[in-house]
Amino acid sequence: MNIITDYKNRQLFLSSIDEKGAAPLWYDTPNERVQLWKQYPGYSVVAWHPGNRWLVLNSPMIIGSRKLVSRMVVMNIDTQEELYSTNRHLYYNALFNAAGTHILLEAYSQKPVWVDIATGEIVAVVPSAVRLGDGTYDPFQDVFYFPMEKQKAYIRVDGADFTCTKVKTPYPDLVSKITWWNGQYLILTHGNILFCCDQQFQPLWQRNFSDLGGDSGQVHGTDILVTEDDALICLSAGATESNGWGVEYVLDRKTGAVRNIIQSEQGRGRIIGAYFHHYVLLYTMKLLNLDTGAVEAFLPGFK
Q1: pLDDT tens per residue, the chain (303 residues)?
Q2: In terms of C-beta density within 10 A (0-12 exposed, 13-18 middle, 19 or more buried), how is residue 139 classed?
Q3: Which residues does 115 contact at the CB level (< 8 Å), separation at least 6?
Q4: Is residue 229 within 8 Å of residue 235, measured between CB atoms?
Q5: pTM as predicted
Q6: How far apart are CA 22 and CA 15, in angstroms?
C-alpha cells in the first residue's frame, strides 16, 4: 500500500482496501472527509503535485499483447480530468518536476524518462542505474538526487533542464536512500549508518544502527520518515537480534540521538507512511505514537 502525506495541506492520499476491493482515496484530515475514486479500482497512488493539485495513479498489471503493462494516469483531483495517461510499459514510479509541467516515469526494464504532460513527448532520459523511490527532491536548488545501485555515487538531475550529472559520494559504503528535509540531507548507507548532511553533503552527525546491542537491526531499504515539526526521524528494521518482528528507531532530528526504540509484535502491522504530529500510519490503519510507542487509535473514519 502506498501513501502520500501532504503536511502543508494536512491531507493523505492512499489506497483503500476493504471487502469491496481497492481504490485510491483522498483523506482530508481537518474535516475527516474521504473522497474515493472508484473509477480506478486497484490503482495505487504514486506522486502528488500540491500546486497543480494533480495526482499520479498507477493500475495493477495488465496483460498486453506482447508483455505485461500498467496504466499510469495524471489526474486533476478537483475535476477528476485525466491530463495524461500511458500504458506502454509496466510502470511503478513517477515524480513531478517543480513546475508540474513534466513527469519522470520509471518502468520495468526501461530507463526512466521525462515526459511533457501537455504533449506526451519524451524530452529526456535518465541513466538506468537509479531508482526513483530511493532518491529525493531538493526544492532549494530545484534538483533531484538518486543514489546509484552499484557505485559510490549519485545522479544529480536538474529539475529545469533535466540534465544529469554523476557525483561521487564521500561515504564508505553504497548509498541506499537519500531524503531531503528542511535544507539538509538524510543519507542511509548499505553499512547500516544514517548520516545527516548539509547542502554540500558534508556529515553533521551519524547514527550506526549496528551499535545498539540486542536492538541492532538492518535498516537498508527502509523509508526515512520525519515528523512535521522536524523533531523526530523514524526508520524501521525488519528484524533485530532480540525481536524477529522488528523495531522502529526514533531519533532526534537535530543530533541523531536515540529517543525511542519501539518493539513491534505480531498483528500490529508495519509502518506504511507518515501521519501528523508525532504519529505514523500502520498497515492496520492504526496510528503509532512515536513518543510512547503505543498503538493509540484507528485513522479517524476508518474503524
Answers
A1: 789 999 999 999 998 655 445 788 898 888 778 888 999 999 999 999 999 999 999 999 998 778 899 999 999 999 999 999 999 999 999 999 999 999 999 999 999 999 999 999 999 999 998 899 999 999 888 899 999 989 999 999 999 999 999 999 988 899 999 999 999 999 999 999 999 999 989 999 999 999 998 889 999 767 899 999 999 999 999 888 889 899 999 999 999 999 999 999 998 989 999 999 999 999 888 999 999 999 988 776 666
A2: exposed
A3: 84, 86, 102, 103, 104, 105, 121, 122, 123
A4: no
A5: 0.92
A6: 6
Buried b (16+ CB within 10 A) or exposed e, 104-136: bbbbeeeebbbbebeeeeeebebeebbbbebbb
DSSP characters for 31-94? TTEEEE-TTSTT-EEEEEETTTTEEEEEPPPEE-SSSEE--EEEEETTT--EEEEE-SS-EEEE
Q: Is the dihedral of CA 262, 265, 270, 273 positive or negative?
A: negative
Alpha-carbon distance of 145 to 271, in angstroms, equals 24
To the nearest 10°, the Cα dihedral for 36, 37, 40, 45?
-70
Point out which residues pair with 238 in neighbouring strands. none
The rounded distance, in Å, linking the Cα atoms of 111 and 56 is 19
Query: Any idea where the domains of the chain sit in the sequence?
Result: 1-125
Please name the fold of domain 1-125. Answer: Neuraminidase (2.120.10)
